[in-house]
Design a protein that fits this description.
alpha+beta; single chain; 2 domains; about 210 residues
Length: about 210
Amino acid sequence: MVVHSVSRLPVGGIAVGGATVLGWWLTEVEDDGRGPVVAGPFATRAEAGWATAEHPPGTVETVYGVRRPDGRVKRRPSPQEWAWLAHLGEQLGRLPGEWEEVVDDEDPLTTLVVEVTAALAEAGLPLHDATGEDAALGGAVLRCEPDLDGIVVTWRQHERMSVDQVHGAAAEDAVQQVMSRAVADVLAVRGFDVEAFGGGCGHVVRRAT
């Protein structure tokens, strides 16, 4: 076990005014990831982050949850994690209906599409909402291809580029190539197996072997 030079709080104090405190805490970094509380609770992750400046680098981490009687934190999903899950669910809701028709919940492609959608969303790249109010905005398009044992990923530009071509066909084509490569690069960096498909207009994405 690694021991760092940090000041620990007393074991008591898990309640304020008789109520259990759920919030952000600073905990000591230990090999098992369950170090004792050093400071807290803090109302926001930002406040907890600022408090880390008072300790040597790498000796404390921010954790969300409830402080236990033994002075450690029982982790709970943070507001940011709930917001992320809601955002991911909204993105998955944009998948075309073919996903429900072709694959079921037990199919490995179902897990893959969730992972790919999450990786794109974490990079700030939304899925194309083809049937929603924002269909004109564009985004990543994920096609289920069981015969290829993967997902075909393409990029759809805003309709100003893809339909109206307000900057001309040459600009639309150049931007399309750039965005296709960018999406492929993001997924490759995240550890997926990415292969050019359809002359480079899209890519087959598989789980890395």
